[in-house]
Amino acid sequence: MTSILYVAKPGLVAPAPTIDVLTRKITAAFRQGKSTGRRWRGTHACSCGAQSDNTDYDLPGGQVTNSLAIHYMAYHREAVAPACLESVAALTDEADPTPEEMVAPTQFQGPCVECKKEVVLWGRSRRLTSSSLICDSCIDKLCCDAGAAR
User: Burial letters for 43-68: b for 16+ Cβ neighbours within 10 Å, e otherwise?
Assistant: First the structure.
């Protein structure tokens, strides 16, 4: 039993999903897979806000993954280990993923509260809302100003 597509640090999120042969292969494998019966007490939240369920899944090739496998392949390809990419490439069947299977990232967009420049952020912060966005430049300025005041 090999674990695949458990991405610990997904990093940056792609602005649009990558739907190619690898994404289609993991989609087909995931649809053919079955729950391991093992349930966790909680769920996993990706750094971009996508939420998993609390179950592991056995794939047809003997690998085990979680419900964000298609999401990682579509939105966080750069963070997927080369060995995982090779395992997915070795799969044979393909299927087009649905938007629900890809689990879109959470996006916050709006004007910076300081300079009014348009800001787009991805993530799962409970404190983050479209009315509290702040751009990197203003964050740096606020942090520097706060440090100088000490």
Answer: ebebbbbbebeeebbbbeeebbbbbb
| Cβ atoms of residues 120 and 109 within 8 Å | yes
Identify the CA nearest to 57 among candidates 68, 44, 42, 72: 68
Say if residue 52 is in the same domain as residue 115: no
- Are residues 78 and 48 part of one domain? yes
- CA dist., res. 51 & res. 92, Å (int): 27
Can you tell me the distance from the alpha carbon of 92 to that of 50, in angstroms, rounded to the nearest whole number?
Answer: 27
pLDDT 10s digits, 101-116: 998 887 777 888 888 8
Domain that holds residue 63: 2-102
72 membership: H or E segment, kind and range: helix 69-75
Count up the domains in the chain and report the number: 2
Question: 42 and 52 in contact (C-beta within 8 Å)?
Answer: no
Comparing C-alpha atoms, which of 77, 75, 78, 124 is closest to residue 104? 75
- Mean pLDDT for 115-127 is 69
Residues 77 and 139 in one domain: no
